[in-house]
Amino acid sequence: MGKDRLLIKLNIFLLLFFLPGDASPTTEPQYMVLLPFLIHTDSPEKVCVQLTHLNESVTLSATLEYQGENRSLIDDVVSEKDMFTCIPFSLPKSNSQSAVMFITVTVRGVTLQFTSRKSVLVKNSESLVFVQTDKPIYKPGQTVLFRIVSLDNDFRPLNEVFPLVYIEDPKKNRLYQWTKAELKGGLIQLFFNLTSDPMQGTYTVVAKKASGKTISHPFSVEEYVLPKFEVTVKMPKVITILDEMLKVTVCGLYTFGKPVPGLVSFRVCRKFEHAATTCYGEEDKAVCDEFSGQTDNYGCISEVVKTKLFQLKRSGYENKLHVEAKIKEEETGVELTGTSFSEITTTVSKITFEHSDSHYRPGIPFFGQVKLVDGSGAPIANETVKISLQGGQQNNYTTNEEGRAWFALNTSMLYFDSVGIRVSPAGRGLHHYCYDHSWVVPYYEEGYLQLRRFYSPSNSFLKIEPKSETLRCGSSAKVQVHYILTPEAIGEQKKIIFYYLVMAKGIIKQEGTYILDLDEESANGVFLLQLPVQADIAPVAQVLVYTTAPSREVIADSTKFNVEKCFSNKVDLSFSPSEGLPSSDAHLLFRASPKSLCAVRAVDKSILLMKAEADLSPSSVYNLLPVKELHDYLYGPDVLLEDPLDNCIPLKKLILNGITYSPVVEMNEDDTYSILKEMGLKVFTNTKVRKPWYCRTENSMPAGAGLTSSSIVSGAPMYAMRTSGLQAERIHATLTTTPEELTETVRKYFPETWIWSLVSISSEGNADLDVTIPDTITEWKANAFCTSSETGFGLSPTVSLRAFQPFFVELTMPYSVVRGESFMLKATVFNYLTACIRV
After folding, report:
1. Percent share of the chain, pLDDT over 70
2. Which of 642, 788, 791, 802 is placed for a possible disulfide with 568 were both Cys, Cβ 3.0 to 4.6 Å?
3. d(CA 20, CA 33)
4. Residue 289 and residue 185: Cα distance in Å, rounded?
5. Which InterPro entries is this protein grouped with (predicted)?
6. Can you spell out the DSSP letters for 377-419?
7. Quick one: how far is CA 124 from the chain centroid?
């Protein structure tokens, strides 16, 4: 392909794969163009083109009818016999937020003429914006610090200008505002001061985009005293109606990690669905049991609660056991509360299918995975699961420590239009229970999977072997592709070219080819693709593998791989040392991409105990994406019409021995078009991607109906049963601590937000922030995110620094007092020294 014949309107880079071809001279020319049905403006997109078996030079063009004009995506003369390429392009912002446009693909030669026109959806790209405050809750008179961050869909920083940023109080009154807030490095830091007597409640930071859309972030203003310790209640999340005992553990830990000495009291209650009367107070609402005791050396107390009192097998109650626990600190009398609950379920065990396809291909193993769990959702390990297919095929599999069993079933003898796989736990039906309207009975949940046969006129198939594990960034995934190629499909062709695409976030990210030489390989086997795993294909990689046969049949398969939610900018944060004395020096060490701008925050753990917040995490950032994966031709309220069907094929009746028979047409089979549609790909082609459809004729049976024999069943169910006992292992661990050396300090600096800074990373990719540890005896929680024009956004894990000394005095005071009021000031001496000292 000469440069003088290459015309691409949008300054795109064209990469071609020149492919060998050895088809017979009678093979007809074929073309296929693949394009996501959803196109975002101002975003790098790709369109993939395949041309094979050309016998003359052709002109390939793709034109988008966009904003009243024809915009050329491709306009090129192709003289090679075979070509495969994916071409990048970009569209400018549209006048409307969402619009249906049309693309026309034309292949024109001296004797060839192919034209196809189809609709696509064009939407304007929106920046990904989030707001971060230094903490979730504030006292009157404190300063609210916040950041606004803007990223594109590839998580690269955008220097966006927000026409308006403002603060709303709980009554929606606007208190403060900033106009033309300009971001640099993808972020901006702002602040405002609360008055000494503000309205209490939920306030909101609102950032308004130029498009008119708004992003809001809430925070609370309250009068509070920070908790010195945390009360946690540990109990199973789920129990079954067969459980006779329930272990409840209540623990109290100071924010600096030491146990709380004090008195524990807790109640276990099961509420009635409907209170009968109001005569007896709390007894009308629930059945309760109470426990109390002193905390042990670990700050905990444990009780084994008998469930008989709560009548788990009776109806008329809520299906929850609630626990409310209180710990009263010794000497000070400070009392804090913790709560938890256990769901009550009738399900004793259940088996579910995971990573299993919805259709099978005769001759290629059917891959799947089952998971066996108990009623609480805990995996049942080392359990034998038997999967059997009616007709004789039986296989035993053992669950791993996660309760999962991976299986592969032989489908070479399967030719049913649908197959049902049923999975049942062992022991089902061995127990006999009485059924009564006021009682509930145990339930052993079954799993069922209905499979449909995949359509291929030549019985040629591809199958991408699925993976149950999440692909890790920085690795190279080995993707196994099983294939069956029959002479009806490939004829005398000896070199088969397989094409593959990888889509993520609704965009074609990777493409390539694999050439299979049938002189050296079997027509029934497996080949391997190497898939580099990076942040660009997270969080879900949709993989398509296909080939076009000389018969014009398209043999294809697709699958999805879960990918770790990672970022190209690798950020690491650490304290040195990780524990120190109040008022001592420490270092906060950063590692990130060179020349990054990092925003760091460190707050007192007590703040997060007072009011939990939605953590800034990889999941929360990825959830900002408008598209994680395409599915069908649906996006929000927008729906694209199906491609029109080809002309139908009349049903031809068969007369045998004077009896007229109508063909059986299976309507539930999937075809290559359904694969492309499921991935959200529009296809322009002269190949056969759709199963033919048949015309109804007068006085004939409808398409999809036909004669069947009573001796032939439509589905052969498979069964799986547990056949071995359950084994469990328990791991016990103990922690030991070594007291710090005694240091005398005067403590007077007690911030709630310790660090709120912007840090520039050096050209070597690191930075060091010198800090002084505040005087609060607590644990400080810190995290950072960084932005780079080269590698984009990155996020560090949350790290901790424990500020502690073995001997100190803590004052217990109310939030406020009135001038002239008398109140009790309590001072607590904490002594964790191993030797005596003079005080």
Report:
1. 84
2. 791
3. 19
4. 58
5. A2M/Complement_sys, A2M_N_BRD, Ig-like_fold, Ig_E-set, Macroglobln_a2, MG2, MG3, MG4
6. S-B--S-EEEEEETTTEEEEEE--TTSEEEEEE--TT---SEE
7. 24
3-state secondary structure at position 17:
strand
What pLDDT score does 159 carry?
94
Q: Classify 9 as helix, strand or coil.
A: coil
Band (pLDDT 50/70/90 cuts) for residue 692 is confident
The CA-atom distances, in angstroms, between 492 and each of 482, 488, 495 are 21, 10, 9
The pair of three-digit structure tokens given for residue 18, joined into one six-digit string:
């020149």
pLDDT band of 643, cuts 50, 70, 90: low
Whole-angstrom CA distances from 274 to 271, 277, 383, 494 are: 8, 9, 41, 75
Residue 674 CA to residue 683 CA, distance in Å, equals: 11
Model pLDDT, residue 770: 95
In this model, does residue 156 exceed pLDDT 90? Answer: yes
Question: Please, what's the b/e burial string for 203-236 (b: 16 or more CB within 10 A of its CB; e: otherwise)?
Answer: bbbbbbbeeeeebebebbbeeeebbbbbbbbebb
Whole-number Cα distances in Å, 431 to 238, 422, 443: 22, 20, 10
Greater pLDDT, 798 or 422: 798
Let me know: does 397 contact 353? Beta carbons within 8 Å: no
225 secondary structure, DSSP code = -
Taking phi over 0 as left and psi of -120 to 50 as alpha, with beta for the rest, 468 belongs to alpha
Instruction: Please give the residue that has the higher pLDDT: either 155 or 53.
Output: 155
Which two tokens mark 64? Answer: 């988008």
Residue position matching structure tokens 């889509």 = 503
Backbone φ and ψ for 135, nearest 5 degrees, come out as: -155, 165
Nearest Cα to Cα of residue 180 among 196, 198, 195, 160? 160
Q: Which residue is it, tokens 């809520």?
A: 318
DSSP state of 647: P
Q: What is the mean pLDDT of the chain?
A: 84
pLDDT score recorded for residue 732: 31
Question: Which residues on adjacent β-strands are paired with residue 350?
Answer: 373, 445
Buried b (16+ CB within 10 A) or exposed e, 672-706: bbbbbbbbbbbbbbebbbbbeebeeeeebbebeee
Give one word for 520, left, alpha or beta, with left for phi > 0 and alpha for psi -120 to 50: alpha
Identify the CA nearest to 266 among candidates 323, 334, 330. Answer: 323
Per-position DSSP letters for 612-645, written without gaps between them: ------HHHHHTT-S-SS--TTEETTEEPPPPPP
| Per-residue pLDDT at 390 | 58
Q: Looking at the DSSP assignment, which residues form a beta bridge with residue 408?
A: 367
Residues 220-250 pLDDT 10s: 999 988 888 999 999 999 999 999 999 999 9
Cα separation, 44 vs 63, in Å, equals 17
Place of tokens 């004729």: 697
- DSSP per-residue letters across 690-714: S---EE--TTSPPTT-----TTS-S
Q: For residue 775, what is the DSSP state?
A: S
pLDDT of 687 higher than 70: yes
Buried b (16+ CB within 10 A) or exposed e, 770-803: ebebbbbbbbbbbbbbbbbeebbbbbbebbebbb
User: Model confidence over 577-613: pLDDT tens digits?
Assistant: 999 999 999 999 999 999 999 999 999 999 988 887 7
Report how far apart, in Å, the C-alpha atoms of 242 and of each of 345, 379, 723 are: 9, 18, 21
Domains of the chain (ranges plus CATH)? 3-123 (2.60.40.1930), 134-221 (2.60.40.1930), 229-345 (2.60.40.1940), 457-566 (2.60.40.1930), 572-605+738-831 (2.20.130.20)
Residues 6 and 76: beta-carbon distance below 8 Å = yes
